[in-house]
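Structure tokens please, single chain.
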Amino acid sequence: MDSTFCCIHPEITANILFNKTSKGGSAWAQEATTTLIYDYAPKVTIGNTGLKYDNTKVANWKNYMHNNEMDGVFSIPKNDTTHVWELNFDHNYLEIHPAADFNIPENCFLIEMVKDKSRPYPIQIELPFLVNHSNGDTLSLDRVYTFDTGMPYDIALMHKAKEMDFFNRKDDAVWIGLDSYHAYYKYHIVNATLFDDFVLDSLRIYTFDRPNAIKSDYLIGQNFLKRFNVFLI
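Here you go.
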């Protein structure tokens, strides 16, 4: 939770002492920020559905991310197995449905989540992309991707991704500077085909050459999810 939000709504942490402090934050950053950790399980209501989280972490999130417009990071409680979460980033809403009587909408892509015992909490799925570069080169990106709902990009490849050489050889990259970290990253605008017949135009694939704390080599972000109405079942 953003500490500025807690200042506006002091009743959230009123009469509750934080258990400890730690240094942490987003894996995208090379710096850390002080976080207050409250071990009580807060009750959160979304619509008519009550949820329970294990703890609360409070930090100055917007200051840390150098972005006052950022909404923050979203997390589904790991102990929730009775609901279907509907995420619509394009129209900016979240809806929770009871799983018992939920009907899957027609014409959906049904994709099983990938289970990884070493990393049980991130949402991971396998997607087969065929990337079509503007110079005619093609590349298969059939990989396991991690949902990163705090990432505003389409697709991001980390420095260990095997396809980095393909994009590093292209001269059409758009470079972006990170002034606070004295570093750069870049993206390529491509067309891609998903599941052999679903065409995605103007897909931005970001590549990050510098090592960071992210454990996944392949990420899907909010801009990609905006193309779909996503149901997590």
